[in-house]
Each structure stands twice: as structure tokens, then as C-alpha cells.
Amino acid sequence: MGAQHNQDTATSRMRLLHNEFLQHPRTAPDGPRARTVTAGTPVNLAVVDHIAAAVTEVAEHTRSVNPDAGPLPPDVADVYDWYRQHTAHADDIQRQRGETIVYRQRLEHAIAMGDDSVIPPHRCPGCNTFSLRWRRELQRALCTNRRCLTRHGMSRTWTLARLAYEHVAVEKMSRECAT
Ligand SMILES: [Zn+2]
Q1: pLDDT at 30 > cutoff 70
Q2: How far does residue 125's CA lie from ligand 1's centre (Å)?
Q3: Number of structural domains, the chain?
Q4: Distance 155 CA to ligand 1 centre (A)
Q5: Given 36, 67, 119, 144, which residue has the most CB atoms within 10 angstroms?
Q6: How confident is the model at residue 9 (pLDDT cuts 50, 70, 90)?
Q7: How confident is the model over 10-17, as a mean pLDDT?
Q8: What is the pLDDT, as a whole number, of residue 24?
Q9: CA of 145 to the centre of ligand 1 (A)
């Protein structure tokens, strides 16, 4: 465990996102409504909101497990290490909930920067194949397997929260099988 800054983690994704904002600071959107400047480059106000919401969510979870967690680290990207340090004694359910939040945020950070490549490595929870593609307009992952349909004959779609939940549950299962 601990810092894994060279790998693709929520921490590394948060750092990328935060650096993106610091390198291109902008205090107001260009137009009457927030818009994407070029594909994948989010308006920085949205990045600020995104980062703040992510930190708040991790902090609230951490403090619900450990009310004595104390102040947040000065560097936002350290929030995930901070969470792990202060929840080392969490029970299984708390830990699974926390890891699901962190994993979902890793996906959210990637997608906020226009990197949809984090989606296809997940199996579809409906048909168990690697057929998922991100659909920005839906803000959900859509299964492209033509046989994977809802009762109404529509393609199935999944939230990032569901994909994160499945990922953490499968990891937990494989850990338990390995021991
Ligand atoms: Zn499917």
C-alpha cells in the first residue's frame, strides 16, 4: 500500500488534474455557459469544482470512519494517502466503501481529462464481456454487445459507481481466494 505515484492510481490522476489546472489557470468561463475548449480539455472552473467535490467526499468518508482524522493534507493529491493512513483499522464494509469511492474517483479524474481509455478494461456487469465504451452524452458506460439488452431492447448502460463497486468486489473476492 502507500504512495504509488508512478502508477495509475486515484492519486496520480488527481495530481494530473490539479497540475492541468495550475498550468492553465482561468478564473471565468469564456462564454455564457461552461463549455469544452477542445476535446478533453475541461474548463478550469469545472476542474476546481470537480477536485473540491472529490476531496470533500473522501474527507467525509474518512471522518465517518475516524472522527479524529484531523486536517486534510496541504496537497490535494495526498488526500488518498491521508484517507488510508487514518482508516487503517476500518472494518471490511467501511474499507470496501472507501476503496469504491477512491476507485470511482480515479475513473472520474481520467474522464474529466478526456481519457476514456479507463472504461474498456472493465467487464460489463450484465454480460461479463469487455464491451463497455464511455458515452459522454450519457455520462455512463454503454455496453456495445448487441445481445446485452434491457427488457425493453435497449443497450445497457452503467454508472462509474457501479463499475467501481464491481471492480472492488472482484478484487476482494480474488484476494480471499488467494489466501
Ligand atoms: Zn453487456
Answers
A1: no
A2: 6
A3: 2
A4: 8
A5: 119
A6: very high
A7: 93
A8: 65
A9: 6
For residue 166, the CA-to-ligand 1 centroid distance in Å is: 13
The CA 82 to ligand 1 mean position distance, Å, reads 36
| Domain-ending residue, one of 59, 92, 115 | 115
Ligand 1 centroid vs 97 CA: distance in angstroms?
24
Asked which of 115, 134, 163 is the last residue of a domain, the reply is 115
